[in-house]
Amino acid sequence: MNDYEYVNGRIAIPKQKTGILKKIANVFTGILATVGVIAIVVTCAGWKIFNNTDTKVKKSGSREAIISEEEKFHGIILTNDTVMTELNAISELMTYSENYAGTATVVDSIQVPYTDMDIWGTQHQIEIMYSGTIKVGYDLEQVKVTVNNQKKEIYVVLPKTPIVDNNLPQEKVTVVQDNNVFNPIRADEVNVRLSEIKEDQMRIAVENGIYEAAETHMKEIIVKTLAQVHSDYTVVFLDSVAR
Hints:
- The chain is α+β, with helices and mostly antiparallel strands and 243 residues long.
- The protein has two domains: 17-74, no CATH class; 78-239, no CATH class.
- Helices cover 42% and strands 27% of the residues.
- The protein has helices at residues 20-60, 63-74, 80-89, 189-207, 210-229; strands spanning 3-7, 10-15, 96-108, 124-137, 144-148, 153-157, 163-167, 173-178, 234-239.
- The strands form three sheets. Strands 3, 4, 7 and 8 form a four-stranded antiparallel beta sheet that branches. A three-stranded mixed beta sheet has the order 5-6-9, with helices on one face. A two-stranded antiparallel ribbon has the order 1-2.
- The chain is rod-shaped.
- The protein starts with a strand and ends with a strand.
């Protein structure tokens, strides 16, 4: 039978009984709603923890990870090794050279013992025509490079001592000899004179500023080369070549 409610002595809306199945369905629906809310909360919390952990790993991770993170926000990071690789590629251009050429004459006579008087008829003569090259270079392993990405500056410290090559090849030496039977030309006379020529030419080159010219040449090459690749950076030389 149905139960009825009476209001002011009249029959009102019938009062429905809640069945057992409906009660179970309501309970099950409530459980599902609660589980869903908990899942959403856990997911959001876990995502936040994961992000924080990932950030910490990147911040405290390897140098490559740090550079990768910097590149993301600031662009490509220029390193000291990158600059040195670029300079090594053009190392030959950094060598500065000067050529020299000339003629030297060697005259020798037998002298009267214990005097400076030459004995007539004992003179021999050697005429040497030569051509050589003096090269001034730098050991790039001694070049110190430091990159400041924040200031966009590349600091370069030059070697204190350049490498010098004074080359007077035999194929560029012509010797004309006027021998004398009483005073034959000695085997070492030409080589001794060539050594003197190299020393003289090196001294002249130094007096004319070959080291300063080589240093200026090197700086110009470095600035020009790096400017072509890293135009937004300024090259700053912190030291000059000291001899």
